[in-house]
Write a structure and sequence with these properties.
Blueprint: H1 24-69, H2 79-96, E1 99-102, H3 109-112, E2 116-123, E3 131-137, E4 139-142, E5 147-149, E6 151-157, H4 159-192
Parallel strand pairs: 2-6
Antiparallel strand pairs: 1-4, 3-6, 4-5
Helix pairs in contact: 1-2
Length: 193
């Protein structure tokens, strides 16, 4: 016969844990402390980034102020000498602030078509492909890769391109006329039936 279990005997499931579990209020306080520390870290990172941006804009403002100061005393007679230097200083100030000045004048249009809008074009002999003849408005590319402003350009195109464009528009007009004639003919046939 089996003996009844000793009521005072402790089995494995009833053994005391070596470490006492954390009380519920302790868990709550620990979670709140961790959340507060994470929030403090986020605030500190935001302040650090704001400080970096402020510093960058201060450098930019200082560079622009120095370039503008260079305009004092510029006369029409000395403008040709002073303007290239001032343009270089302003472009350097833009690059120092994390922005890039995009002036595609003289570049092939195929290389700049993703960030430049064409305002107009003119034929020029001796060209093999379309080239930016003049930049009417420069593009502006930010350090994060965002295009803040598209360039507006005027193109110089080879005469053959203009003739091809004219030929394409004539073919398009002829195709439109043929399509209209076909639609009119189909409408007549529909009416006769």
């Amino acid at each position: 016969m089996t003996q009844p279990a000793d009521p005072l005997r402790i089995d494995e499931q009833e053994r005391l844990l070596a470490a006492r579990p954390e009380p519920p209020q302790g868990v709550v306080w620990r979670l709140l402390r961790e959340r507060a520390q994470a929030a403090d870290a986020a605030v500190a990172e935001t302040h650090r980034q704001a400080g970096e941006h402020k510093s960058a804009f201060e450098h930019f403002a200082r560079d622009v102020a120095n370039a503008l100061h260079g305009l004092h005393g510029v006369t029409p007679a000395t403008a040709a000498d002073a303007l290239p230097s001032l343009t270089a200083k302003l472009a350097k100030a833009l690059e120092g602030s994390g922005a890039r000045f995009l002036d595609p004048a003289g570049e092939p249009y195929e290389e700049v078509e993703m960030w430049a809008d064409v305002v107009g074009s003119e034929q020029r002999a001796g060209l093999e492909r379309a080239v930016v003849a003049e930049t009417l408005q420069p593009g502006l590319l930010m350090a994060d890769g965002k295009l803040a402003q598209r360039a507006r350009v005027y193109l110089a195109v080879p005469p053959a391109v203009r003739e091809r464009q004219d030929g394409q528009s004539e073919r398009t007009e002829q195709a439109d006329k043929a399509e209209q004639a076909e639609q009119t003919e189909q409408e007549r046939e529909g009416e006769q039936e």
